[in-house]
Amino acid sequence: MATLAPKMRDAATVLLWPNPVPLECGVIRNQSGASEKGTGTSKFTLFNLKKIYTYLKSKGKGAFPNLRYSVWLHIVKNKFGFTDDLAWLYFELFDVVSELPSEERVKVLQAANECTSDEETDTLRKKLSVDTSRFLLFLYVQSTPRLSLKGPSSTGDDWPSPEAERRHQRFPEAASLVFIKQYISEILQLLADTDEATRESYLSVESLSALEFLLCGCQQGAGRESLTALACKYSQDSGYNKTDDRFPVPSLEQWLRAHLTLNPYGPQTVYSQRKETRVTCFSSDGPGRLLANTHTAPQKCGTAVLGRLVNQTLAVDESGISGCDVHIRNCRRSTIYLLSPMRTVTLEKCSHCLLVLGAVKSVVTVSNCDTITVVAACRKVHISSSSLSTFHLLTMTRPLVFPSCFHLCLAPYNTSYPRLGDHLRGCGLSPSLHNHWDNPLLIGTDEDVSVVWERMPPESFRPLAIPFSMEGPTQENPCPLPPSFQTVLALRRETIKRWYDTVGSTQLTEDQRLQTAVRGNFQDWLSRNGYDKDIAALSIRDTPSPSKQLELTN
Predict the structure, then answer these.
(1) Are residues 398 and 446 in the same domain?
(2) 55-89 confidence digits (pLDDT tens)
(3) How far is CA 471 from CA 322, 415, 421, 422, 475, in A?
(4) Does residue 153 form part of some domain?
């Protein structure tokens, strides 16, 4: 006869769900899950990570509880054969998806910007450190090719759609929940210690706090609360031993499984409550399709959803989506302005669109898109399975380009709006520091670099004007342009000034001056490009011969 599990006394009040940022934006792999080549993720097995964790804890200073980059580099270069770039990539991305104060990040970026050589940069990096336990959890997430974290949201169905409503798997949060439920035992085993007397596994309070990197929590009807606080509060169910200040793994695992659920503030919930979550846009050509829960979600839990926008223009400011994780999917031939600070932005299956994003504190993820133009200021960009697209970027780290990307054009950031400066500072992004827009890192691809991406020629660069009135101190693009781009813009401005001078100096009416200036510059353009000869040839071909003219006269 089956034994019933004991009923949890807090079952109706505690909610635990996967943290969307590391699980949906912090995985170094092709977003379709098709390729692991060049990432080194196969090295991050539970066995290897447990050995590393044990070694780091025994080593002490510089390794535990905080891991220096110099120690990490020594391990992965000697044990796994990683390159310096790959070792730094993991360290850097962990920092990007971690919740750190913006001021602290800016200080590190400023120090890196002051380095004048590769040697100085390496010296600075080796002094940096991260939380050891959380970093090991981050590495474990990388080693799970058994489950495609983005796969369920990369199906061919339109979204939102009736089928998507019936099947949570159309949203990335469902895949994250499946992952946590399937591998929670291994995750706890990675962090656990063993009592030498009883041979029982347990987690210290410090180790449990590391699990907050992957799990968020709250009590129903209350604000967000840390996993550790909730586990200690409900000690009878979680097994918390106040005397030893630790949790027995079996009791803790049972308590975690009993309360794991879909993100109550994620895209699925936002869409299901669309009547209450619809955002008022200050410009929209059609019915509002932007949904967000900023007015009801706790801090750092806001989510915005935008899908199936076709042949429309939509614009929203910070009043609607500030601090949100934004999901944009299945938009066609549309122009979208999200002029707000955001935490993450995910673009999927969009085509022939212009997307102008405000400051993004963490990651912009682009997958399965074609013929789009993205203007974004962010900490990191991931691009996979996309083609024929242009990216105007201000990014603090190297863009990641995954397999199945073709004919991407990378260019410097090219726009501004009145609140941009404030938004950049709030997200810890500094336009005065080095912009890595033209230094992508290609992951797991054998394609010729010239087929995958190209640097926009300065002659093709055009500033983008935001066609809306807003209040704020930023009057021009705060991001410095490379000298070659500045030169082209200066020449273009001089040409426009000459046009105005020419028009103003003629003794004609305003309409006549304009027509004369346009006609003259058009003739110059024809001559400069050789088209005047083609037109002359057409004129000669179409002119009747003298005999034909005589016949026509008669």
Answers:
(1) yes
(2) 999 998 999 999 999 999 999 999 999 999 999 99
(3) 16, 16, 12, 12, 10
(4) no
